[in-house]
């Protein structure tokens, strides 16, 4: 199999992913959220802050800092547009992680 065949297979794989309920739900919720640009910007800020907190906090402080962070944003996450999007995004990310693990399990990659 050559590189072009691999690229074709990857495009077909991506199309199969696009056809899943998980991906369609993610896209629907993202579109709903984007209909409110100000809220979408706030969600993106929340996502960036979450990423920074998780990746730039010492492990011994992470639990306490995440707990305080979640309490700070609790009312923000009560907005159904926000919560539905974040849940859909999480489900999609988990699906992609599982698929990546499945692919790597079938390769000799260390």
Number of helices: 6
Radius of gyration: 18 Å
Kindly give the count of domains. 1
Q: Under the CATH scheme, which architecture would be assigned?
A: Up-down Bundle
What's the CATH first level?
Mainly Alpha
Q: Structural class from helices and strands?
A: mainly alpha
Largest sheet: none
Q: Strand share of the residues?
A: under 5%
CATH homologous superfamily heading: YheA/YmcA-like
Would you report the number of β strands? Answer: 0
- The SSE order reads HHHHHH
- For the termini, the CA-CA separation is 22 Å
Structure described in brief:
It contains six helices and no strands. It is mainly α and 110 residues long. The longest helix is centred in the C-terminal third of the chain and has 26 residues, at 80-105.
Plain-language structure description:
With 110 residues, this protein is mainly α. It has six helices and no strands. It has helices spanning 3-18, 21-34, 37-55, 59-72, 74-77, 80-105. Helix 2 (21-34) packs antiparallel against helix 6. It is flat.
Considering the chains and any ligands shown, give keywords for the structure.
110 residues, mainly alpha, YheA-like fold, 6 helices
Topology:
Blueprint: H1 3-18, H2 21-34, H3 37-55, H4 59-72, H5 74-77, H6 80-105
Helix pairs in contact: 2-6
